[in-house]
């Protein structure tokens, strides 16, 4: 949990620095307007106040996100890792498949497999085409996740890339929701695209 908390602090650093700068400037401006003869001291006071505000905000954001990430990971039986703070969350799977297997066949297999998983639950299928699958999970929660899966075949090798990110694209942190969805689904996706040596789908 500590590693995730530290990663969350780093992810929110830009936002907290901007807040610190704005607060510092505003505070210094107010103090200087009251007494222009003490502008140096006012500037120092404003800077210190802004730094304190930024530090408090960074701790609050990281702590709140860590708590949410811990709950999200526990909900899917996962151990929270530092990489859960990274966005987007990505993974790649490469498996041998029978010659002639099409991306559409594998995409269909993946969708069927994910629909059987009790959690995370797929709320919406946004895209389902030849080698492309995009689903939304947790649309009723505070941190809905969009998972995009791309399938490419080259002779007897299938490459599956997965990309999970918040539906709200501006978010720098999503409480581990994207990572939890990706990590929970990844073994099911891997199993869905694997075939026995005789070409029979093992799922």
From TrEMBL:
Keywords assigned by UniProt, alphabetized: Membrane, Transmembrane, Transmembrane helix
Superkingdom field: Bacteria
Name of protein: Uncharacterized protein
Positions of transmembrane segments: 12-33, 39-62
